[in-house]
Design brief:
The complex is a heterotetramer of chains A (about 210), B (about 525), C (about 350) and D (about 325). Chain B is mainly α and about 525 residues long. Chain B is built from 17 helices and two strands. In chain D, the strands form three sheets. Chain D has a five-stranded mixed sheet with strand order 3-2-1-5-8, with no helix packed on it. A five-stranded mixed sheet of chain D has the order 4-10-9-6-7. Chain D is extended and about 95 Å long.
Chain lengths: ~210, ~525, ~350, ~325
């Protein structure tokens, strides 16, 4: 059992503190993504027809597949936490590997989508060269599309880094039923990344 | 148990997890950046003396006031009191051994330094202009390396978030047994409210800066009118952080003043609950008033009406605090040591700053006064008069705790009076200049403004001398100051119940709080230091 | 609160069933999006998203067992986000119709009935406009020796002398010169000036020298005005496209400096006469507080500042298209770096 | 009221609204002065009265709900009062009357240009009628600017891609200063303009196209006047006779032999150089005593002088 940090009364207190620290950190993440979505909300209401027109150029199918990937990666992450708490090292590691592969496939689909957009010239406003979309404000939709999904993809990458770090420690047995704070906290972070996508997908792809 | 300064060698400082050492490192870095920003200010004032020959070319002048603003705000007064004094004092005042996440605390300092290096590196390239507000579309068009300053501010923002996170969790989880919420010292209440603002506002600054960087690099065009964006929307994003940021700057200073005045009046704080809750009042109202910065920006009239009305309510909690501090001194036994001098300086300057804030909150007045020297004077009165005076009061108040030594009171008085008089001579004429319509950020001004600008420049020399003198006697005190004993001011808060300088673990035996930290008995009028 | 090490918060079975529920909800929201419910679409999608989010928060992120203050912490972030959105919308959606559409300074139709007939008022008005628009290059008294004339190649026309007028000295021809400018020289087009002003200028300029022959019907045809009809044509954008104008420049340029289609050529044509061929600058034109240092290059002006100044009144080169202007500005910036 | 008004030296009241503005400002100034004296005065009084004496006994007070209630309610009421008064004056500033004269203002990096109803344009100078409301419809061509007239107490940012407007009804004939109040680059402080309030008659002339007296004379005429007022005539004559300095008659375009024997053409740059830093380009036969006029001659004056000297060329 890892000896708890010297300035905490008990391991329990330290876990509670770290968990609350994680929640406060998630507040800052919510406000960062939220700020971006406020920008999107304002522009969508300022130029509804341009944005509606532009959103038709998004591949809803690819978006849906990505949503399925991320939700199932949330499920495997929750499984990983459960198995770690139950002390099942192998099962937890497999779940973590499952989460990583789902995340990787999310990135691959993302790559396909982005290259499709680049090809069609549906780029942020300054570089927008598409000819079909006539409305002047349509390029702004793609600016916001690339900023939101880009920032989200960056968070997925960070998440994968964390997952690899947790996988290593789970596989080595350091994280097990006795001490699994890092697993839970990375679990929080991963579920949050999935949460953001749960809002991004309908806002950008379905409703537009 | 050896005190925290015992371990020697650079490695012991750079890899320390001790909140006290991190606090000192913050204090030293903040003082260096304050001097750098101060030098820019003195040169600006020298240029504005206006004896015909130009000290600075137009572009140089624009870059000087941009760097003065950006350095002073992002690298001095926002990290200032929380980073330096907060890191040092909060854990001891709580009765804890350290902050909740020491490693995160050290990371926050390094992230702050990386951000500072990014911002400062622009100095050696093509500089940056556009003021610290970086309004679009100018900040998108200019070809100065403003990108570096933006990245610097973005990185420094994360350091501010991590410090706030540390403080919130420490206050929640690490209070000494017996320290209930209504026995929490007011400095901690202030830091708690400040941390909440930092957590809720700084991420929006982060996304604003990311968007502005994306404007310059990827031309996303949402703030660029040429590509269909709306520059006023940038101002909304910017001020949604920057107005709460001015409360991030002032609340910790108010916390220091709430600690200093009762100790040096030897009397309980007047209206403890009112002051504690007004910190929260300010923290909440801080988020709904930002539009008063944009009255003439092209904002809708309804927004002007709403923001001006809401801004009026900010003055109420601030008024409660000021009146309570003066109430604390009533029937006290007042010792005029340096911390008290700076606290009184704070009261004088902040009252002027606060009252002129009400002018600017009134719609009609703001139309004429915004973007003139009236605003420059107002925010210097509240930022320098408030935050810097609070920082100096805190530094002098906890100097014995940090170093175990005493500075010379006579020298402190000299530098205090030089700064106070210099400050008033510098900035009060600027109210008049603003009323007469001299716009801010002007490289050349019309001849009729020359006289007041010259008076203002002379005043700035006194401020310069004051801080120079402060550096000298502080350095002298660190090396040769008389031993101060563990509680020179005979204060009741926890940090004075341990030795000065405190041991690495802060307390020999874990403290238990038994009563209110401001319960000064009527006969408790003497201080250890003046025996 | 369930103690930390006494087994998992969620059993494997409940994790999988919750996962299934989330996937079903995703399917629902995708299917609903194909049905066009207008405004309602947004709220349905938002509702489903909130449900999914609550499931993840409540179960996966274990708010179910957790102390309530973590949930409170999370909700405060949403509260402040809403404050941000609401108060920003109070401004953005209540400004009224303030969007700028089209050119801000409109060209104004003329007022006098037949401005091509010379009248003393027109000549007086011409004299005034002359002081504002033409004295800079053509000199105070029309001798072609204005302050900006020194470095102009070819030098500005001397109105007092009858020879050298490319389009001739008839009122219609001077009017044409004013409308289209003179290719291959620094004389740019003054098409944005109201027509009355241009006729007045033509009359005044002609009055500086000897009386020209009367205008014939063909002359009026050349400038597309029917002399018998009342009122003059409203200013229309130049009929020929920029490409054609550039080609015109190429063919009719006298000094042999062919426009090779590159920015270099453009620069040679239009800017070199004032700014010097290598951009080292020629003369300082500081008229009406319009501070146009013709040595902008060493100040490394931004591309937009250059375009803005090119389009500015002092230059009057309004016929260049956006691509040409950008290419020209980029060329100018490299000139500064060389 | 007088001394404070005097002390603050508020700018001239160019409009009726400026009068209302000044009374609101002075009322708030008095209020702030009283509050300041109350707070800082009592602070200093307490510091003096209760300064530490060994025999002191402090009173154990931790607050008083009555006082706290007072200094919550009273400021709130006062503030709301100020807000209402401020808002009423503000409405007077923003609600432009229907029949206002409309002028279009275009802000461009470092110059203001104006277009009137009759299609005329002017740069750096705007002409408005006295006693009649004028509404400015403004936009910018590049970055943010801000149209600020201190004497009228009005200011409004000028945003690219968007109209913003400001209105005023001048009551004082004459010239008032206009500033740019939003940072817009290198010569943000040079982006000035003059607003000429014309009498009724002048305004009619201006509308018909005749230039009011304010237009001033031709460039050369201005140059001639400056030639005197700037002191050139003390050393340089215009009739060919040399005095302390060479005569300016016939100078322009001629070949000038310098002290060190080299020759230079007296072109526009030569004249500009002589005015700004005369060292090292003295004509043979003259001793160098010409002072520098750097910073004393503005851009427009420089061009007028050059035009005048050119007009003396033949």
């Amino acid at each position: 059992m890892r000896h708890h940090a010297h300035h905490f009364a008990s391991a329990e207190a330290e876990f509670e503190a770290s968990k609350q620290g994680m929640w406060v950190f998630l507040v800052t993440e919510v406000l960062m993504f939220g700020g971006l979505l406020v920008g999107y909300g304002i522009f969508r209401n300022l130029y509804p027809e341009a944005f509606h027109e532009a959103h038709k150029h998004l591949a809803v199918s690819l978006g849906a597949i990505n949503t399925v990937f991320l939700i199932s990666s949330s499920v495997t992450m929750a499984l990983a936490v459960t198995y770690t708490q139950m002390g099942k090292r192998v099962a937890a590691s497999c779940s973590l590997i499952g989460t990583l592969t789902l995340a990787f496939s999310f990135l691959c689909v993302k790559y396909v989508e982005y290259s499709h957009k680049f090809h069609d010239g549906l780029l942020p406003a300054g570089y927008f060269t598409n000819t079909e979309l006539k409305l002047p404000e349509a390029p702004l939709f793609f600016s916001l599309y690339f900023m939101t999904t880009g920032l989200h993809m960056l968070h997925v990458l960070i998440g994968m880094g964390l997952l690899i770090w947790i996988l290593r420690r789970t596989w080595s047995g350091e994280l097990s039923s006795g001490y699994c704070t890092p697993t839970e906290l990375v679990g929080f972070y991963w579920h949050f990344v999935d949460l953001v996508w749960i809002f991004l997908f309908p806002l950008l792809y379905l409703v537009g | 148990m050896s005190n925290y300064l015992a371990a020697k060698g650079l490695r012991s400082w750079l890899t320390t997890l001790d909140h006290k050492r991190i606090g000192l490192m913050y204090l030293f870095s903040i003082f260096v950046f304050f001097l750098l920003g101060g030098i820019f200010a003195l040169i600006l004032r020298l240029h504005l003396f206006g004896w015909g020959k130009d000290l600075l070319s137009a572009d140089m002048y624009n870059q000087f006031f941009t760097f003065h603003g950006a350095i002073m705000i992002f690298l001095v007064i926002i990290p200032g009191i929380p980073g330096a004094l907060g890191n040092f004092i909060l854990p001891i005042m709580l009765g804890a051994k350290d902050v909740a996440f020491p490693r995160l605390n050290l990371a926050s300092y390094y992230i702050f330094m990386v951000g500072a290096i990014f911002a400062a590196s622009a100095l050696f390239l093509r500089g940056a202009d556009g003021g610290w507000t970086f309004y679009t579309p100018y900040s998108i068009r200019t070809n100065t390396t403003v990108l570096l300053v933006l990245t610097g501010a973005l990185i420094a923002g994360f350091s501010s978030i991590l410090t706030a996170l540390n403080f919130i969790i420490s206050i929640h989880k690490l209070r000494a047994p017996g320290m209930t919420w209504d026995r929490l010292p007011l400095f901690l209440w202030a830091l708690y409210a400040t941390s909440i603002i930092q957590i809720l506002a700084t991420p929006v600054l982060a996304i604003t800066l990311v968007l502005l960087i994306a404007e310059r690099v990827l031309q996303i065009g949402i703030f660029d009118p040429k590509l269909g964006g709306d520059p006023i929307l940038f101002q909304h994003f910017f001020w949604f952080y920057s107005h709460p940021a001015v409360y991030i700057m002032i609340l910790p200073a108010m916390g220091v003043i709430s600690e200093v005045i009762p100790v040096f009046s030897r009397k309980p704080i007047f209206g403890y609950k009112a002051i504690a809750y007004s910190s929260f009042g300010i923290a909440l109202i801080a988020f709904i008033v930002w539009g008063h910065h944009m009255v003439v920006s092209g904002q809708s009239e309804l927004a002007n009406f709403l923001f001006s009305l809401l801004t009026m309510f900010v003055a109420v909690p601030t008024g409660i605090k000021v009146f309570s501090w003066v109430g604390t001194m009533y029937r006290g036994s007042i010792h005029l040591y340096a911390p008290m001098l700076y606290a009184l300086g704070f009261l004088e300057l902040f009252t002027i700053g606060g009252l002129t804030g009400i002018f600017l909150a009134t719609l009609a007045i703001d139309v004429h006064m915004t973007d003139t020297y009236f605003v420059v004077a107002h925010f210097h009165y509240v930022m320098v008069g408030g935050t810097i005076m609070g920082l100096l009061a805190g530094v002098h108040y906890w100097f014995p705790k940090m170093t175990g030594r005493l500075y010379s009171e006579r020298d402190a008085a000299i530098s205090f009076w030089s700064i106070l008089i210099g400050f008033n001579v510098t900035f009060f004429p600027q109210f008049i200049l603003g009323a007469q319509g001299m716009p801010r950020r002007y490289w050349h001004y019309l001849p009729e403004y020359t006289m007041l600008n010259r008076v203002s420049t002379v005043g700035s020399w006194f401020i310069g001398f004051g801080f120079l003198y402060l550096m000298i006697y502080m350095w002298k005190a660190v090396r040769y100051g008389k031993a101060s004993g563990s509680n020179p001011w005979s204060a009741l808060t926890l940090e004075w119940q341990t030795s000065s300088p405190p041991p690495t673990e802060n307390f020999e035996i874990d403290p238990v709080v038994t009563d209110w930290p401001y319960a000064y008995a009527p006969d408790n009028v003497h201080m250890a230091v003046n025996k | 609160m369930a103690s930390h090490s006494s087994g998992p918060h969620l059993s494997v079975r409940s994790v999988l069933s919750l996962g299934g529920l989330l996937l079903v909800l995703t399917l629902v929201t995708v299917l609903v999006s194909f049905v066009d419910l207008g405004k309602l679409n947004f709220f349905v999608a938002a509702l489903v998203a909130i449900c999914k989010a609550t499931i993840v928060l409540y179960f996966f992120m274990n708010l179910r067992h957790d102390s309530r203050d973590n949930a409170v912490i999370f909700l405060t972030s949403l509260v402040f986000l809403t404050i941000f959105f609401v108060l920003t919308s109070v401004d953005v959606f209540f400004r009224g119709d303030v969007k700028v559409k089209g050119a801000f300074f409109q060209a104004v139709a003329s007022v006098t009935k037949k401005p091509w007939i010379k009248t003393p008022e027109l000549v007086a008005h011409g004299k005034e406009q002359y002081a504002i628009q033409c004295a800079m290059c053509h000199g105070a008294v029309g001798a072609g020796n204005g302050p900006a004339a020194a470095a102009l190649v070819p030098p500005p026309r001397d109105f007092t002398k009858p020879d050298g007028w490319k389009n001739g000295r008839k009122a219609t021809m001077v009017f044409k010169t004013l409308k289209d400018g003179l290719a291959g020289s620094a004389m740019a087009s003054y098409a944005t000036l109201p027509e009355d002003d241009r006729w007045a200028l033509a009359h005044y300029i002609i009055s500086l020298g000897s009386e020209p022959p009367a205008d014939t019907a063909e002359d009026f045809a050349v400038i597309g005005i029917d002399p018998n009809k009342e009122g003059s044509t409203v200013i229309k954008e130049p009929k020929i496209t920029i490409r054609q104008a550039m080609a015109l420049l190429q063919t009719s340029s006298s000094g042999g400096r062919l426009y090779t289609g590159s920015a270099e050529g453009q620069y040679g044509q239009l800017c070199a006469s004032c700014h010097g061929d290598k951009g080292q600058g020629g003369i300082k034109v500081g008229q009406y507080g319009l501070y146009a240092v013709t040595k902008p290059f060493d100040r490394a002006m931004t591309e937009d500042a250059i375009i803005a100044s090119i389009r500015g009144t002092a230059h009057r080169v309004t016929t260049l298209s956006q691509e040409e202007l950008t290419a020209l500005a980029r060329f100018v910036q490299n000139a500064a770096k060389r | 009221m007088g001394i404070i008004k005097q002390a603050f030296m508020l700018p001239l009241q160019g409009t009726a609204v400026a009068g209302r503005w000044d009374s609101l400002f002075l009322f708030m100034l008095w209020l702030a002065a009283i509050m300041f004296v109350l707070v800082v005065g009592s602070m200093l009084a307490f510091v003096w009265k209760y300064r530490h004496k060994a025999s002191d006994r402090t009173t154990y007070i931790t607050g008083s709900h009555v006082l706290e209630a007072i200094w919550i309610i009273v400021p709130t009421v006062m503030l709301l009062g100020i807000f209402v008064w401020g808002y009423s004056v503000y409405r007077g500033m923003t609600q432009a009357p229907r029949d206002a004269v409309e002028i279009r203002v275009l802000g461009k990096q470092w110059v203001w240009s104006f277009q009137y109803d009759n299609g005329r344009t002017s740069i750096g100078e705007i002409y408005v009628p006295v006693h009649r409301p004028t509404k400015l419809i403004m936009t910018s061509e590049d970055v943010l600017h801000s149209f600020f007239i201190p004497n009228f107490r009005v200011k409004q940012d000028v945003v690219p891609g968007m109209y913003s407007s400001v209105w005023f009804k001048p009551t004082v004939i004459g010239t008032h200063q206009v500033f740019c109040a939003e940072y817009c680059g290198t010569s943000h402080s040079g982006m000035l303009a003059k607003i000429h309030v014309l009498s009724e008659a002048d305004w009619e002339d201006w509308n018909e196209g005749k230039s009011p007296k304010a237009f001033g004379d031709s460039l050369v005429e201005q140059g001639r006047k400056l030639h005197e007022t700037k002191g050139c005539v003390t050393c340089h004559t215009a009739d060919g006779t040399a005095k302390l300095g060479p005569s300016h008659k016939g100078l322009f375009g001629s070949k000038v032999e310098l002290e060190d024997g080299t020759f230079v053409i007296a072109d526009e740059n030569y004249i500009r150089g002589k005015i700004e830093n005369p060292r090292g380009s003295t004509k043979r036969g003259f001793t160098q005593m010409m002072p520098t006029f750097q910073g004393l001659v503005t851009e427009t004056e420089m061009n007028a002088l050059i035009a005048y000297v050119k007009s003396l060329a033949h």
